[in-house]
Amino acid sequence: MTIRESMEEWEAQYLSPYASLSRNTKGREIPEPLCDIRPEYQRDRDRILHSKAFRRLKHKTQVFLSPEGDHYRTRLTHTLEVSQIARTVAKSLRLNESLTEAIALGHDLGHTPFGHSGEAVLDRLCRDGFAHYKQSVRVVEKLEKGGKGLNLTWEVRDGILNHRTSGHPSTLEGAIVRLSDKIAYINHDIDDAIRARMFVEEDLPSEYTDILGHSVRERLNVMIHDIIANSLDKPQICMSPGMEEAMKGLRSWMFEHVYMNEIPKAEEGKAQRMIELLFRYYMDHVSQLPVEYRVMMEQGEKKERVVCDYIAGMSDSYAIDKFEELFVPKAWKN
């Protein structure tokens, strides 16, 4: 018996009857020989972790554009925090931790530079539209490894696609990530907003904090415990009604007081104009795209989609560098 087979046997004996067992995966679009050490979802986790798109997340905005200070969240730290929360829940419910982690690590790979503001401008410019959750799937299916993709299992791709609020993941592991994403960004965006001196903890509505908790640490603890208590040995992932309503209420308050606030959005107009100029430049100068993107067009991909792929893959700093290279005059030197 190989190490992989012994681990699959452990899953079958120990995990919940509602867990997604590695041996029961629907598989990959391109069949591959099984690894002798790692079950399939662990292989997917490793592939995402070693991908270029994952590394680029460290220089992509979460909420605050171009913040001064090292402690504001980036898309990478958000992803790691989602993964930590999701793994805690999955392990407590005896669900598949490797599948959960793979979905969590891959859920935001398709995010643009400058957060949702970058996503909004590409969605406006591209006739076929642009959504980060669809782009995340495109990254793992098509864009990584020079157009070959990562060839991930069906369950991981399904979880990545359906992590948004309106999504319906097919596995409980995917449902955990969907809920963990919201828990992470609500609480950690509060932490960043307090750091930015937008408000203090006591300004949060007591009708929500009296239920959820009066600090980031307390809220995370309360919400995670609530999910576990209400989902243990059940075929669904859910929160208690009161807890879920309080979370939704606090999320709505955050949209009004943080996400649409002038402080995190102060540079948004500039960032969006920059992305639009980059988009229009590469639409008119496709020969300036990297070779792997030109090859995609030769293989039949639409020009608009390929230009979106290139820009969406940029980090904030790379987008700024490209903009300066293309549009900002250089000082003449003798």
Question: In a nutshell, what does this entry contain?
Answer:
The chain is an all-alpha fold and 334 residues long.
Structure description:
With 334 residues, the chain is mainly alpha-helical. The chain has one domain (41-334): Orthogonal Bundle (Hypothetical protein af1432), CATH 1.10.3210.10. The protein has 16 helices and no strands. It has helices at residues 3-14, 40-49, 52-56, 75-92, 97-106, 115-125, 132-147, 154-161, 172-195, 206-212, 216-231, 241-259, 268-284, 291-298, 303-312, 316-327. It starts with a helix and ends in a 7-residue tail after the last helix. The model has no long low-confidence stretch (mean pLDDT 93).
List keywords for this structure.
Hypothetical protein af1432, single chain, flat, 334 residues, 61% helix, mainly alpha
What is the strand and helix layout of this fold?
Blueprint: H1 3-14, H2 40-49, H3 52-56, H4 75-92, H5 97-106, H6 115-125, H7 132-147, H8 154-161, H9 172-195, H10 206-212, H11 216-231, H12 241-259, H13 268-284, H14 291-298, H15 303-312, H16 316-327
Helix pairs in contact: 2-5, 4-5, 4-9, 4-11, 5-8, 5-9, 6-13, 8-9, 9-11, 9-12, 10-12, 13-15, 13-16, 14-15
Helix % is 55-70%
Q: What order do the SSEs take from the amino end to the carboxyl end, as H and E?
A: HHHHHHHHHHHHHHHH
Overall domain count = 1
Backbone structural class: mainly alpha
Q: Which regions have little confidence, pLDDT < 50, spanning 5+ residues? A: none
The count of DSSP E runs of length 2 or more, i.e. the number of strands, is 0
- The backbone outline, from C-alpha atoms, is flat
- CATH structural class: Mainly Alpha
Look at the structure and give the mean pLDDT: 93
Tell me what portion of residues adopts beta-strand conformation.
under 5%
Name of the CATH homologous superfamily: Hypothetical protein af1432
What is the subunit arrangement here? single chain
- Taking all Cα atoms into account, the compactness measure Rg is 21 Å
